[in-house]
Amino acid sequence: xxxxxVSIITTIYNSEAYIAKTIESVQAQSYSNWEMLITDDCSQDxxxxxxxTYAAADSRIKLxxxxxxxxxxxxxxxxxxxxxxxxxxxxxxxxxWMPDKLKRQLELMTEKNxxxxxxxxxxxxxxxxxxxxxxxxxxxxxxxMFCDNAVGFLTMMFDREKCGTLLLPEIRKRxxxxxxxxxxxxxxxxxxxxxxxxxxxxxxxxxxxxGKLSLVKYNISIYHLVLGYSKFKSVIIFFFIFLPFxxxxxxxNFFKTMFLPVRGMSIxxxxx
Length: 272
Hints:
The protein is of the alpha/beta class and 272 residues long. It has helices at 19-27, 47-57, 72-81, 101-112, 142-147, 160-163, 175-187, 216-226, 231-257, and strands spanning 2-12, 34-40, 61-65, 85-90, 96-97, 116-119, 121-124, 130-134, 139-141, 157-159, 189-193, 199-202. 40% of the residues are buried.
């Protein structure tokens, strides 16, 4: 494990339209001690070749491959297993980081002496128009993560020295939430960078995380398969704890960001 090195965990699956901008947002980081491990989950487009082109020019970028399509959990774990950095951060192939993302969060980790951090982030649509902002909480403990995923995965970073090397459960969806809970069981509290958004999350109609109704069974499976509750208790927790927190968070965040100055603006015109 290399002290100070940030290992950025990325996966691609038919990501040719987005991966170049994602990689460029990492290359633009003001903190330069990073490696980007991109695992190809058996893409059928030119995404892997695009990554090879960037990797040939920048040795910090590494392309890994799976033998069969296995989903983002398995692909992310493949990158984690090959990571050399003390710090682990996650960035999906269609999302973008602001230039000071790593710098600000490493400073926050040092200030709080903590093992896990996250931040606020903007959302945009497939036309790269800003649709809103998810304002993070100042801190999150396990009980809050149990109720609903309160941390945007594209902003999360953890310290392996404090938390250990944890892998995601190998399920197709919601494995990010499960990892967040596992980390908080270890480090007990995570801190959020609230001063400004440090990432941009793209909402796509065909992405794994789209279609919230289809995620219901995966939400329940986290309580059942990952946390070990009975199926009946998992359903009760989902409907009477998860859903009220989820909708409450959405409503609160809507009113917080409905007058966001950059709403409706192209992300290419943002000052970062």
